[in-house]
Design goal:
The complex is a heterodimer of chains A (299) and B (527). Chain A is mainly α and 299 residues long. Chain A is built from 16 helices and two strands. In chain B, the strands form six sheets. In chain B, strands 2-1-3-13-6 form a five-stranded mixed sheet. A three-stranded antiparallel sheet of chain B has the order 10-7-11. A two-stranded antiparallel sheet of chain B has the order 4-5. The two termini of chain B are 46 Å apart. Classes of the chains: A mainly alpha (299), B alpha+beta (527). Chain A: Belongs to the binding-protein-dependent transport system permease family. Chain A: InterPro entries: MetI-like (IPR000515), MetI-like_sf (IPR035906), UgpAE/MalFG_permease (IPR050809).
């Protein structure tokens, strides 16, 4: 092994890896040091080195913010909803799509399904605001059947549902591609053997496709769980209004308002850090659990 | 977190790049060419500003803009170089990155020298102190920019000048638009009082005023999520969100006064009676243009300079559509304020301390304020392209293809204009169709200014730092805005809800803010 490393080829390989390594160093690792501003009163012109230290002031300010628990609860809820409903959705869709034997139909469906991924949230938001508005098509159908028009966008109880389902609608096709790709690498002999043994389609999916996808599923899940408290700012901001703020305000929208509009860099970095710490704890513990139970892990 | 860390990292990289560039320039200007190059460089002026979503500035390709830069350079004798950043939030983010990296220009646009975008810049000596330079090189600046603007804390700190005001061009420009054809159809005059308005609103609701066969899709007033812009009625009760006034020796925001509750009650009445759309709060400001052209709304808050475009735009299937400008209806005490008396500052120029030729920059601005060529350029653009001259008679067609496509005339009147919002300039106004109507609109607008002598120059309050929820205006996410909407749609009881809001606002830092504001007021008025 060591001898091999000395050969010229290895050096070339290292050289090829260098830009990637440099990227991670410069854009991912060095910026981590920037987190110290959470403990400073950061001033843009004094820089990280000369800003005054503030200790845990910003963390205190965060935890004593009257709405902190509400924001935390909302972020957690949105994160859990998007994982519980959003995570299995592309897998399910991939399994279903995989069963389609009509090649052209499958291809077309696949393309149509991932098309929304390329639309910006402003457009998607606009479309659905129109659809869900009081005079929109959905409410027209409801009233035509004798129901009463529902104000979907201002009723707090619908907010999380709308955000979660729109997130799924927009991204499900795109996330599905990874699973479809993983499915192509499953050995077809397995299916043939199963067929010989009299397994039907459902059994094949259950006993062959799913287990073969397990490593992919676990890795994606572990990567996803770290972002539990991250929401899509554009998406949530678009649907946020005074009537649903109490259920819709999440960390990211709060940071957007306080940090970017109010110039509170240190404070918002403290919030970001809090989110990241929770993310790290989740990833590490889930990774451990997963290694013990499924044998799969990301490190 | 990652966004900010990335921002910091890229900052270091950017700084490295820009300092390298400066080094190259120095090398290039070596030897014999040096003196000549330096003289040339002194006439170079780089300007960093926002395109503010103006059609031509934001969408036209650079090569179409060059002719304007060349024309201005030719007229002024300076070599101007504009760089347009984004608008609104984008602008703030981009600008803060530029400040962090030090990659600035000779003239930098900001909303105030105390802006959050570059917090602490004045204390850190980032901006050049301009007082002595203006005294020496800017006689026209002194003369033409009013005292009310120079005194503003947006340019002035402890009596020292760090910024040059760019003027809004008119002391007041907010006004209401009514659909005259709808008024005619109802045989009504423009509502003079709130009671008149209620009668008008009822008629709009009952009749099919847009003539599409459906009598139930018309609303008397357009409201959207941008309430700060669409709110026309709080002033009829003598208050405006965002304003502070002295009450019993204390400087307090208007939003916690009992008059504000009356105003909310009036909006609630409009809402309950179906005079405004039920889901107005989910309406984006950008979509309201559609409602207006479809004839779904009969009146809305607007600005005088919008009149030509809105009056001329197409109203499908409504051949008689016509706009009338009017002041808002008067309230119970005869008031109808639509705007706060302000310092007339549109935005502020700053000159970074690193700029090499600040006296030349001041001279350039002085030229822009003082010379008739500049007046002409910032009103009519380029001769034989934007306007023609026949026997000394100037011909400017605002609807001509070179002026109207992408709203090209806004480029020299507004976007490039280093003095003011030139759309409000009398030279630009007098060539518009219906210019007498528009000029009258400006006069009317002036009568709706809410007196603001108590707090016009109040600096940012420390007590509100990091607490956007306490902002005393229609700012998204503020307690006031949330409460306003909840009370209007009846989610909370008006009296209980409003009192609870006042209590909450005060408790969460509002009391401290009032104390700080009062202290400031007392200290400035002792002199």
């Amino acid at each position: 092994m060591f001898r091999k490393f000395k050969s010229v080829d290895s050096w070339v390989l290292l050289l090829i890896a260098l830009p990637g390594l440099a990227f991670f160093l410069v854009f991912k690792y060095i910026p981590i040091a920037g987190n110290v501003i959470a403990f400073q009163d950061y001033n843009m012109f004094k820089g990280v080195l000369h800003s005054e230290w503030a200790g845990f002031k910003h963390f205190e300010f965060m935890f004593t913010h009257p709405e902190f628990m509400i924001i935390f609860k909302n972020s957690l809820k949105l994160g859990l909803y998007s994982i519980i409903f959003g995570f299995p959705a592309p897998l399910l869709l991939a399994l279903l799509l995989n069963e389609i034997r009509l090649r052209w139909f499958m291809r077309t469906t696949q393309t149509l399904l991932y098309l929304p991924h390329f639309l910006s949230w402003v457009i998607v938001g606009g479309i659905f605001t129109e659809l869900l508005s009081l005079n929109g098509p959905l409410n027209q159908i409801i009233t035509n059947y004798g129901g009463e028009a529902v104000s979907f966008l201002t009723e707090p109880k619908y907010f999380m549902g709308i955000i979660t389902s729109l997130g799924i609608w927009k991204e499900v096709g795109w996330s599905m591609i990874i699973y479809l790709a993983a499915m192509t690498s499953i050995n077809p002999n397995l299916y043939e053997a199963a067929m010989m043994d009299g397994a039907g389609r459902f059994k094949m999916a259950w006993h062959i496709t799913l287990p073969s996808l397990m490593p992919t599923i676990v890795v994606l899940m572990l990567l996803r769980i770290g972002h539990l408290l991250d929401a899509n700012v554009e998406q949530v901001l678009f649907f946020l209004n005074p009537l649903v703020r109490e259920v819709g305000e999440v960390f990211d929208t709060y940071v957007y308002r306080v940090g970017l509009m109010g110039g509170q860099y240190s404070y918002t970095t403290a919030i970001g850090m809090f989110k990241a710490v929770i993310g790290i704890i989740l990833v590490v513990s889930l990774n451990k659990i997963s290694r013990k139970t499924t044998g799969e892990s990301i490190y | 977190m990652s966004v900010i860390s990335l921002l910091l990292a890229s900052t270091t990289v950017l700084t490295a790049c820009s300092s390298e560039k400066a080094g190259e320039n120095k090398n290039a200007a070596s030897g014999e060419a040096q003196t000549q190059a330096q003289a040339q460089e002194n006439k170079d002026i780089s300007i960093l500003l926002s395109h503010n979503n103006s059609g031509f500035a934001s969408k036209a390709p650079e090569e179409k803009k060059v002719k304007y830069y060349e024309e201005l350079s030719k007229e002024s004798g300076y070599n101007v170089n504009y760089e347009f950043l984004g608008a609104g939030e984008d602008f703030r983010q981009q600008l803060s990155l530029r400040f962090a990296s030090g990659d600035l220009a000779d003239l930098v646009r900001t909303d105030s020298i105390n802006s959050d975008v570059h917090q602490g810049a004045v204390d850190q000596g980032i901006f050049l102190e301009l007082g002595p330079l203006i005294d020496k090189y800017g006689p026209n600046l002194k003369k033409k920019i009013p005292e009310v603007a120079w005194n503003s804390p947006k340019v002035n700190k402890d009596g020292k000048i760090y910024g040059i005001p760019v003027l809004s061009g008119a002391p007041a420009d907010r006004i209401m638009f009514y659909r005259q054809d709808m008024l005619d159809q109802l045989h009504m005059e423009v509502p003079k009082t709130l009671d008149d308005f209620l009668k008008f609103a009822e008629a709009v609701k009952v009749e099919d005023v847009n003539g599409d066969g459906d009598p139930n899709n018309e609303w008397a007033l357009s409201l959207t999520d941008a309430m700060g812009w669409r709110d026309v009625f709080t002033g009829s009760f003598g208050v405006r969100p965002g304003t502070w006034h002295v009450h019993n020796g204390k400087l307090e925001p208007d939003i916690i006064q009992p008059e504000m509750k009356e105003a909310i009650a009036f909006y609630k009445k409009l809402y309950d009676n179906g005079y405004i759309e039920k889901d107005f709060i989910t309406k984006k400001q950008g979509d309201s243009g559609t409602d207006i052209s479809k004839g779904l709304v009969a009146s809305w808050g607007a600005a005088t300079y919008q009149f030509p475009a809105v009056n001329a735009q197409e109203y499908p299937n409504q051949p008689n559509a016509k706009i009338t400008m009017a002041v808002p209806p008067k309230g119970p005490r005869g008031e109808n304020y639509l705007q706060i008396t302000n310092d007339q500052i549109y935005y502020v120029w700053t000159i970074p301390a690193t700029t090499k030729n600040p006296e030349e920059i001041i001279k350039f601005l002085d030229w822009a304020w003082g010379s008739p060529e500049a007046d002409k350029f910032f009103a009519y653009g380029i001769k034989d392209y934007n306007y023609t001259e026949n026997n000394g008679q100037l011909q400017f067609d605002p609807l001509g293809p070179n002026n109207s496509e992408l709203n090209e005339k806004e480029f020299f009147q507004l976007s490039m204009n280093v003095r003011e919002n030139g759309l409000n300039n009398p030279l630009a106004l007098k060539v518009l169709p219906d210019s007498d109507v528009i000029l009258k609109g400006y006069e009317d607008s002036k009568t709706t200014m809410l007196p603001n002598e108590d707090a016009m120059y109040m600096p940012n309050l420390k007590a509100l730092d990091g607490r956007p929820e306490l902002t005393p205006g229609f700012v998204s996410g503020s307690l006031f805005y949330d409460t306003f909407v909840k009370l209007v749609v009846g989610k909370e009881d008006l009296d209980k809800g409003f009192d609870a809001f006042v209590q909450d606002w005060k408790q969460r830092g509002g009391d401290a803010a009032i104390q700080e504001a009062t202290d400031w007021y007392n200290s400035t008025n002792k002199k």
